[in-house]
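Figure caption, in words: inputs first, then the predicted bound structure.
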Amino acid sequence: MENTAEKKNVVLSFVQSSGTPTIANYFGAFKNWHGMAVENDCIFGVADLHAITVRNTPADLRRRSQEMYAWLLALGLEPEKNIVFLQSHVPEHSQLAWILNCYTQFGEASRMTQFKDKSRQHADNVNVGLFTYPILMAADILLYQADQVPVGEDQKQHLEIARDIAERFNGIYGETFRVPAPYIGKKGGRILSLQEPEKKMSKSDPNVKAFVSLTDADDVIVKKIKSAVTDSEACVRYAETKPGVNNLMTIYSCCTGKDFDAIEAEFAGKGYGDFKAAVAEALVEELRPVRSEFERILKDKAYIEQCARTGAERAEAIARRTVRKVMKKVGFYQV
Ligand code: TRP
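Bound structure (tryptophan present):
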């Protein structure tokens, strides 16, 4: 990618490998990644090192990492053009993370709200990895001299600390890291729980009716949409007081590209039954090709391995250069 005559923007994003992705991951991130990959040089990674901040069984970690990588391939992210890889395949992530640890203050890492939330959720396993998680994420970004990083609301603070670390290091040693900016792309949909539409949709929700997973069969998707919580007004319109209907409108809009005015007009005078049927149908049509591509790719282990190996080699070629530069600047004796 570094040989292209005209240097394009480097856009980088990673996804955690902690379970089957939902339509919230799909509309909030994946679908936009596809658009980004057309216009930029993109680096997409599966953040499997981040996954061990919570306990996993080895077989699960392996399977989930491989499956998440297969999802990235199924999205059509073109591994020949873009770099698509797994974080643990490139040792420079851990290497740079250690160095950056020493340029991050305990106090600033302590302010991360995700750390506070997660240490409450996993009170029995508040490990140091959970604490230094954002520093590994900073390494992910800074290794590749990324210009832009698309991040959701919950990751904004982590991008901010990555920028702070980069600026601090550059301030001490001179220009070393490109300081990454948030990527403001086409607005993706923020998809909420189908059962409690005040909360965000989560794959770890104990109520499986609250989320649509990307592996759900067509009839399961239809059932989940039909049992989504709405309200008693029986009018399809977007309003602050109607989170359930807003959420279904967002899903419909993400599938069809129609805006809310068009959706209100389309369902004027119709009830929620008709509306939900249309949402379900649009969602089934949207997900079917991605799911079948995923299933096809997952069977082709040789293809997955070959892509992962090539992706890691290309990623490492860039990462190695950054680490060498950093080590030289810090003053490690290099031979
Ligand atoms: N922490 C991110 C998340 O949970 C995943 C992630 C890891 C990431 N490394 C990254 C995102 C680098 C962007 C850039 O969503």
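The mean pLDDT is 94.
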